[in-house]
Amino acid sequence: MYDAIIIGSGPSGVAAAYTLKGKNILLLDVGNLPDRDINLCANFYDTKKNAESYFRGLIGDNFESLNNIDREYLMPKVKAPYQRYVVADANRFGTIRSETFNGFISYAQGGLANVWGAQLYRFNDEDLKMFPINASDLAPYYDKLTGLIGICGHDDDLTPFYGLAKNLLPPLELSSLGTDLLQKYSRRREFFREKGIYIGKPRLGVLSTDYLGRKKCDYSNLEFFKPQIPYIYTPSVTLNELIAKNLLDYKPKYLALRYKEMDNKIIVEARNIDTSQTDSFDAKKLILAAGTLGTAKIVLNSNEDFQTKLPMMENLPSYIPFLNFFKIGSSQEKRSFYTQLNLFYKGEMFDGLVMGTFYTLSGILHSDILFDMPFSVRSSIIASKYVIPAIMVLNLWYPAHIKEDNYVSLERSGDLHISYRDRVTGNVEKHLIKAFRRIGYFSLPSLCKYPLPGNSFHYAGTLPMKAKPSSRYETDPYGRLSGTSRIYVVDGSCFPFLPAKNLSFTIMANSMRIATHIESALDKGF
Amino acid sequence: MDVEREDLMREYLSREAYYFHRSLFKSEISKELADKYIKAHDFVKPSGTDSQFQTIRMVIDLNLDAEAVELALRKKNSQHPLLQKIKILTYLAECNSQYYDLFINEEPSLFKAVAVLTYHVLRTAYKLLKGNIVKLRYGLV
Ligand SMILES: Cc1cc2nc3c(=O)[nH]c(=O)nc-3n(C[C@H](O)[C@H](O)[C@H](O)COP(=O)(O)OP(=O)(O)OC[C@H]3O[C@@H](n4cnc5c(N)ncnc54)[C@H](O)[C@@H]3O)c2cc1C
Predict the structure, then answer these.
(1) Could you give the CA distance from residue A162 to residue A121 in angstroms, rounded to a whole number?
(2) Distance CA A380, CA A321 (A)
(3) What is the pLDDT of residues A92-126, one digit of tens each?
(4) Start-end of H helices in A310-441
(5) Residue B2's pLDDT is what?
(6) Percentage above 90 pLDDT, chain A
(7) CB of A511 sitting under 6 A from ligand 1
(8) Measuring CA to CA, which residue among A173, A125, A131 is closest to residue A460?
(9) pLDDT of B1 above 60
(10) Where are the domains of chain B?
(11) Measured on CA atoms in the order A427, A429, A434, A435, is the torsion positive or negative?
């Protein structure tokens, strides 16, 4: 019998596995992997210059890059041919049925984090005010993770939101647009403060210097097309180390179906996806880390519950393109990293903190955005050549509360049904557009994009953590599912509130905290 | 029979590729790119009503300005199969090294860029007007 079974190898599962190394741990995972035969040049623009040799990587054998022409929208990073494995099989084991939500379960080794932006932020007491824990409970695990991952960033106007930049690597280099925006903001800091706007550098799990045997960022602009780039931390980095050191029994190709709690153990039934045979595994503890939607599915299926509507939260996203007129006609920067700056908005336009990230459009195909431009097609192609180097896109995220209208339920067919009613009003966007005009960054409300909920990929709240859980679909402060004694939830499911800050660093720290609690329970023979 | 229909389909898609390419890129498409355009249709399935596909046929048969027609139709229907087909060609062209200079700017010049953009604003206005006239005249949907 295993000490614990972990389901899922995303950030939450790997953080738990890392904490419990030394115990007898089984990690069950579907674990899809990227193509082994990655063929791309050392730089995105060199790749495009020699595009015929790289057709598989840019367009794909199955024309994956053309996905958004006739199918449900996928972000550029997810639709790229070599990255597609991250959402492959998303519909194989049951689909997500929804008119109001466009989301995915990842069955990849490392989960959704294979394509994440690696923005890693600590939640402070304000962010955690609806949690039954506080920032000091998470602090030691954030510190440990900072050492493990290698996070870059520094102290600036955003430090009050992030906390001090302890043990961080230096920030990444900014592109010329990022530098320009930061300089103009710094000159007009007081003006922006009055408007409730704060800007600074992001904190990223991306190496700005060589670190623990991994090479630093080479600014190749390949992040949208190349999977598992070593300078971007992904859970697979740690998972592969644990496997190599024999600190974990990793069983990929297993789809966990349900669990059953007995007096002295927990039994997990999982289907081998190659043979379709169902096997049982038993352990003293079960750690659910299949991602917010994956875990909800396993819990509801185990209870054969096709009625209950579990709450669901996501950071509603919006996009504002900003054009800097003075940068029109600049040559395309070929050496850059797409994530530039972060923004916080705290003011009258929204009740709560809104967070945003400025991205350049380097490293993506122009065709992904050409048709949003107000020109005829040929004119768009030619205009994009001169305009794209002058555009930054601000991606905003909104916080989410648990609300009755936003829920997920399981159907007998195995499909998840999601209803998500919240929408962005556009007021903050208008406010920001007006403010940025002052420093030469122009946009229009009509150019803003409001993708369907689900597109932030920041999902949480299905099994919320409470000081005193009252229903069987709530968890206690140690992530233990109410009414059970051996089942723990360590992914975003157990968040009772979702601040606008990217959630995964907190998912990982919380998972480590819960795993530490499980470890001491195991040591005591429970 | 099926083989015959497939050949016909290929021939038709090939005509589309040549026609749209001339309209957008003002030159003859290479055989290689045309073949990719045809193959892309095995994976990407532009959808629309019969009359929308009829519009595409009319554009090609009557030698109409595809770019202008697409622009005029786009406002009402951003998913028109004509646009979907043009998108296929644009993606394929962008990922072909011959078109690199058309998409990527390597020589900075604010003056040139402003002149080019001004021209294309005016050109777009002209195309929109032309597209609307053609649309009305031929009853395109
Ligand atoms: C494009 C993109 C950008 C993002 N950027 C950021 C960012 O910058 N910062 C940030 O904080 N977050 C970001 N995120 C979100 C982040 O990736 C997720 O919050 C995070 O991956 C969630 O981790 P998880 O461990 O809960 O689940 P997942 O990453 O979803 O992992 C789920 C794991 O469970 C396994 N699994 C699922 N179901 C089963 C089953 N039934 N049986 C066996 N195994 C199963 C899967 O194989 C997978 O290994 C981004 C996401 C995307 C897609």
Answers:
(1) 6
(2) 16
(3) 999 999 999 999 999 999 999 999 999 999 999 99
(4) 367-370, 377-387, 427-437
(5) 82
(6) 97
(7) no
(8) A131
(9) no
(10) 2-138
(11) positive
pLDDT per position as a tens digit, A386-395 = 999 999 999 9
B122 contacts chain A (CB < 8 A): no
Query: Are the C-beta atoms of residues A17 and A289 closer than 8 Å to each other?
Result: no
Strand locations in A229-290 (E): 249-251, 254-261, 266-272, 278-288
**CB burial of residue A136 (10 Å; 0-12, 13-18, 19+):** exposed
Number of Cβ within 10 Å of residue A446's Cβ equals: 6
Does the beta carbon of A364 lie under 8 angstroms from any beta carbon of chain B? no
Contact A328 B110 (CB under 8 A): yes
Contacts of residue A55, Cβ cutoff 8 Å, sequence gap at least 6 = B95
Average pLDDT, chain A: 96
d(CA B82, CA B71): 10
Give which of A105, A483, A424, A448 is closest to A295, Cα–Cα: A105
**B46 interfacial to chain A (CB closer than 8 Å):** yes
Q: Inter-chain contact A375–B95, Cβ cutoff 8 Å?
A: no
Protein residue with least CA distance to atom 17, ligand 1: A113
Other CB atoms within 10 A of residue A327 CB: 21
In degrees and rounded to multiples of 5, residue A130 shows phi and psi of -100, 0
Task: Determine the Cα–Cα distance for residues B108 and B21; give it in Å rounded to an integer.
Answer: 28
Tokens of A1: 């019998």
What is the average pLDDT across A498-525? 97
Distance CA A458, CA A451 (A): 14
d(CA A430, CA A416) in angstroms, rounded, equals: 35
- The model's pTM is 0.96
Atom of ligand 1 lying closest to residue A511 CA: 25
Which one of A326, A377, A381 has the shortest CB-CB distance to B103?
A: A381
CB A132 within 8 A of CB A477: yes
Domains of chain A: 2-34+43-523 (3.50.50.60)
* ipTM score for this prediction: 0.96
> What one-character-per-residue DSSP string does A215-246 give?
PPP--BS-TTT-SS-TTB--HHHHHHHHHHTT
